[in-house]
Design brief:
Layout (H helix, E strand, L loop, with lengths): L10 H14 L2 E8 L3 E11 L4 E6 L3 H8 L2 E5 L5 E13 L5 H11 L10 E15 L8 E4 L2 E2 L2
Antiparallel strand pairs: 1-2, 1-4, 2-3, 3-6, 4-5, 5-6, 6-7, 7-8
């Protein structure tokens, strides 16, 4: 792997860059696991509300079944050079019980309101407990920018 030209960012800069990406990006990879069936990974649209990631999936999907059984999840933004990984516990909201502000913000961002669909949907909220961010090998050291739900400075 060539790392020439990579300038190692300090924690505050990594945090700022990660938060900017959480606001502006559309897709996140969500990794779940079922106690009996093992890991499952799927890309989903997401919304960052300033504290938590909100996603939505069919209420009958493997992802929905997994988070109901095992709420610990990992999320990853889809760039393998500018890595942002989040870890936390999923909280589930059936589409007719989701907080209105979250559902409206999700619909505004994507132009799609799952509450209006025929089949049931599940909103999944993840408040990160750990966030890691790095660009290339020079930034592997110091990649943890949030620990135990607290941003590191």
């Amino acid at each position: 792997m060539e790392t020439t030209g990579i300038v190692r960012r300090q924690t505050a800069e990594r945090m700022r860059d990660a938060l900017e990406r959480l606001v502006t990006e559309r897709d996140v990879w969500m990794s779940t696991a079922h106690p009996d069936h093992g890991p499952h990974q799927v890309p989903l649209w997401f919304l960052w509300d300033g504290r938590a990631v909100w996603m939505c999936t069919s209420a009958t999907s493997v992802t929905a079944r997994n988070v109901r059984k095992e709420p610990r999840v990992r999320l990853s933004l889809p760039d393998t050079f500018d890595v942002v990984l989040l870890q936390g516990e999923a909280e589930c909201f059936p589409d007719q019980e989701v907080p209105g502000s979250a559902a409206e913000a999700f619909a505004d961002k994507f132009g799609w309101d799952p509450r209006a669909e025929e089949g049931p949907f599940l909103y999944v909220r993840v408040v990160p407990r750990t966030v890691r961010a790095w660009r290339g090998e020079p930034e592997l050291r110091g990649r943890v920018i949030m620990r135990d739900g607290m941003w590191l400075e």
